[in-house]
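Side project, low priority. Logging it here so it doesn't get lost.
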Amino acid sequence: MADIPVYLVAGFLDAGKTNFINGILEDGFARQDPTLLLCCEEGEEEYEKNALDNVTVITIEDEEDLKCSYLKELEKEYHPKQVLIEYNGMWQLKTLYDNMPENWAVYQEFMFADATTFLTYNANMRGLVVDKLSGCELVVFNRFTKDMDKMAFHKIVRGISRRPDIAYEYTNGDVEYDEIEDPLP
């Protein structure tokens, strides 16, 4: 049985996960392949109905419901060629990884964070921040403003992982990638 690619979008409430998913769906992410979209939290934004052709949306409200047997049932019923997951920021990623069917393979992992609240999350819920940053390939700090100190965000990310690219999305929509050089040891 061939692997089913999983695209994981993690982050905290009101971090821009749904907007990102809407954007990639509108750009044709699911146009060719039947896609299973697992929504593990319901925020203020909704999925764009016109972008949901070829997409089956399943809401998982409780972390305890994220069981391998349930995910296999969904696979059997909907026959997805890919899975997109909007993951609840208050749930540990270990729950997902421990319960994914063997033929599901995470192809990309993203983390989204509201720059206006991220430092507070890091100060008060460090374990959840570490959990989300440890395996991601890209972290996007949205709602970033010119007066914010990039170095504070950079240090937190690099203190956890050197792997992810870091993007700062400004309130006007401009995106700037982190180019801060880390000192050599």
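Brief comment: The chain has six helices and eight strands.
Revisit when time allows.
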